[in-house]
User: What shape does this take?
Amino acid sequence: MLRTRVIPCLLLKNRGLVKTISFADPKYVGDPINAVRIFNEMEVDELILLDIEASKNGTPPDFELVQDIISEAFMPIAYGGGIRRAEEAQRLVSLGVEKVVVNSAVLRNRGLVHEISEKLGASSTVVAVDVKKDWLGRYRVYDTPAGKTTDQDPLTYIREAISGGAGEIFVNDVAREGTGKGYDIDLIRTLAPEISVPLIVCGGAGMLEHFRKAADAGASAVAAGSMFVYMGRHRAVMINYPPQRTLEGIFKNG
Assistant: This one.
C-alpha cells in the first residue's frame, strides 16, 4: 500500500465531467460514469467528486447522479458540492458515499462541520479549503461561489474546522489548479506540521515528481485532475492513472 494516497479529483457540472484552470473556463471532458468505469479497471483506490455548479448556484446535491455513479464504482468515493445541511450529508452516505466534502457552506455556517461530524463521524467528514494569495502575497481562504478572497488565514480556519469535527482537510490552490506547475511546497510545509488530521493537497500537479515533492513536504494524500483526464502536451482527453508499480517507485525514491 502506498504511503501517500494518490487520488483523482473529478469535477462535475450539469451532470458532465469538466476540467478547469484556476477555477475558471470549465471544459467538458466526458461522462463521469464512464470515467469511473475506467478508473475501476485501473484499480484506483479512491476518488473525489466535486460538483462545482451546485455550490455556486445554491442547489442541493444531485442525489440521482450520485447514486448512478456509486452503483458503478468499485472504490470509495468522497463527494462534495451543494451540501448545506447535515441531513443532505447523511443521505449521501446512505447512497454509498464514504466521505462528504463541505466547503463554501462552512464559510457561511461554521457549525455545519460539527453537525455533520456528529451524524457521520469525523472519518466521513472532510472540510475543503480553497486558498489564494492576496495582494500582499499572503494565502487567504478563497470564497469560490462569491469569487473573492476573504481575510481569513487558512491555518486558523483549518484548526477551527478540525476542532469542529473534521477528520480530513482538503486544500486546493486556486491559482495553481489545472496549470501543471506543481503544488506550492512552501504552503504544504507550513500547514502539514500544524494539522492533526490527514491533509490532502490539490492544485498544480503536472507530473509524478510533483506527487513525491508534496509527500516529502508533509501531505498525507495528493489529488489531481488534469493529470488523470488529459494525456500528452496537447492535452488530449484520455482517462488515465499510473500503474501501482510506478507510484511505488516514485515514493520509494523520495
